[in-house]
Amino acid sequence: MNDSHYYHAPDLARFAEVGKGAPDLWDKFQAWYGAVFAEGALSAREKALIALAVSHAVQCPYCIDAYTTASLEQGSNEEQMTEAIHVAAAIRGGASLVHGVQMRNHLERLGM
Amino acid sequence: MRVLPTLQKQRHPLASATAQRARLAEVRLPRSFEAALDGAGLFPLRATGIEVLQINLGRRCNQTCRHCHVDAGPDRTEVMPADVAEACLRVLAETAIPTLDITGGAPELHPEFRAIVARAAGLGRHVIDRCNLTITQLPNYRWIAPFLAEHRVEVTASLPYFQSRQTDAQRGEGVFEESVAALRELNALGYGRPGTGLVLNLVTNPVGAFLPPDQQAAERDWKRELERRHGIVFDRLFTITNMPISRFLEHLETKGQTEAYLTRLARGFNPAAAAGVMCRTTLSVAWDGSLYDCDFNQMLELPLGEGLARDIREFDPARLERRPIALGPHCFGCTAGAGSSCGGAVA
Q1: Could you report the per-residue pLDDT of B168-179, keeping only the tens digit for each?
Q2: Which of residues 52-71 of A touch B (CB under 8 A)?
Q3: Among A99, B184, B267, B336, which has the highest number of CB atoms less than 10 A from its own CB?
Q4: In whole angstroms, what is the distance from residue B59 CA to residue B15 CA?
């Protein structure tokens, strides 16, 4: 175990240890997670790209490693993966900026 | 086209098969390959027959691809001698093995390539040429494509991606452009076109330390993009997993990814893929006549099992057809995910 810092790449392989505290919940999570990423109305490749983008939005380094690999293994290329994370970044940036309407509403209330 | 010195030329420690086997044995995996097979009810793994005689004509090549498990290149000198080639043809003549699969290096560089192909085709055998494409565009080798068409040889050609950056990163700068020219020439001869019977398959290995994509989905992409961008058509795409052997092992070592990649392969063990591995139906012949279960075991110098004739000149079909397969941790490369073989995914 490496406890000198919070994120440690090999810890991703120990993810299942989280199940020790609540095995039933872990099993349910596993089954649901597997079903989410199965081929469906969206392809497994599209789901991996969405996961890659969301990983950046939630800034999870484990997820970024996992879904960079998964996207490559689903046949996505660097250009497609980079565009996906720009989508995440644009939504994050837009989400900040759209709050400017709230700012403007309050300015309206306070101003003359 | 840019080429690099081979590991052998560099006197790199991993030029040695013994050093490669030792490095692979050091990696701590969740379980051994034998244990994985046992868990799937497949141990000991045995051959089920010999449907493909795969002959490696030598290690000379005009390219030095970064993932090459042969460590082939222009500075290699190993070439199959005439008596070994003759023994391979004699085995074909004396058995009903339906397919001769010719590989290398660039097999077309062998001085007797044309004679070997013509005689095997004359015996009524299906002949496959594992072609790197660019060899067909060299001035002294412009005969290759028309010759292959004349003898109706199946061409299985390497092209890791339908864009130049990824292709050149793996196979050398300038390879993509010359590969496109070669594919256009093959198409003009009828290869890959419906109704001609001239089969053109492409092979893609991942450009890095990850598993190949779904073969069917990738084939759809390749067909759409190669036709749209370059007007190129082909029959099938084979996805092949990079083997942690020779230059790809050296690449993994350089990147510090050996443990992670082998673990990825081991965790991806698929019993269905294991049941269909190519070594069960293939016999591999090295340039010097020695026999192996596959081209990968050949490069790792992992010999056939005890008590078996180990040279094509002592070919004993009755014992070889049901032989136990020699195994190692690299075998996880053929059983991960959808599996991998010279004919692509197996599960």
Answers
A1: 999 999 999 999
A2: 69
A3: B336
A4: 13
